[in-house]
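Handout, section B. The chain below has 426 residues.
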Amino acid sequence: MNGNPDEGRPAPAGPDAPPARPSQLDETAARLAELARFPEMNPGPVMRVTHEGTILMANRTALQAFGANLFGNRWPQTCPGMGEELWQGICNSPEMVAVEARTGGRDYVFRHRRDLESNLVFVYGADISELKETQQALKQSEQRFSELARFPDMNPGPVMRVDKDGYILMANRAALSVFGNGLLGKCWPDTCPGMGEEGWKHVQESPDMVAVEARVGDRDYVFRHRHDVQSTLVFVYGAEITELKEAQKALRQSEKLAALGKLSAGLAHELNNPAAAAKRAAAQLAERLAEVERLSLRLGIAGFTEGEYALLRELRDELAANAPKLRDMGPLDRADREEAVTMWLESRSVPEPWMLAPQLAALGVTRLDGLAGSVNPDALADALAWAGKTMAVLELIETVSTSTGSMSELVSAVKSYSYMDRAPEQ
């Protein structure tokens, strides 16, 4: 301690100082090289920024995060969420300032430290994407746990937990409001209407959810049972279906009314055709009968004998017998036959031959020639008219019979449909 006070101190630097030894130069170069490697060895983005915000240096990680053209850019504009106001706060703060930002699909926290000597800001970034995901997952897990804890009481329907012997261990407020405050400890198979021991056995043995409908008080419910094999517990979830039941009942009633309306409309439509046909035939029948009566009187005045009347009746029966054959003919053949009869009637000056021809076409010209030779020529026109009008009366009677028969069949079918669910009591 009594020696030279400068002993052991480094030699002063200056123009008069002795040159540094080679070993000291190597050591300094090595330390500088190590410092130069330090930013590149940092796994996070590292940057050096001026107070004006210009990026002077960036390591490889920073270039990967923000792009190769990062040098010379302004950091307040490059860093998401930074802005000029926050950057001024960083430049004026003596403390380290951390800023979170998201870029390139990753989350980072950038810590800014202002260097008073160099008037620079050093930025050190760290990738916190995994941390953010973990925090988010933890937050979601906490939310789910909180929701699960609140779930039974938030459920608007009855919720219960029942042990393997059927005793109720837990019930939410909705279940207590339905079955009463003394629900805990009761036997669920005895409490749930319609469950019973057989139903409870089915719930425990079934791997699927078992739904049981029950009426409690004046309300309808469906209770769904899920058996947990691991805990041997049965979770019961109830839902009120009173309105649904009423809606289904109303829907069924509406469907019945709709079916009845459809049936009524269809029946009215089907009955209308034969009824209209019968009505038209009945109206025409009165006219034809009056004409037949008038022609009968004229034939009587003309001195028609009993034999001639018998001949007319045979002619009428022959027309009735041949009418189906005429209907079975083709349109062209029938038209040719009617035209031939029309010409035959015109040649004998029979009034309105076009009216009688369709009714007498079943006889043919040959048969008409035979008739003309057997009756009084002066009464031939009235005789033929009587035969044709009588044939028309028979056709109208057949139309009335067919139409009313169709109406009777429709009524019978509807009656059997209406009473098809009725059976004799046993």
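Note. Residues 1-15 have pLDDT under 50 and may be disordered. Compare this with the example in section A.
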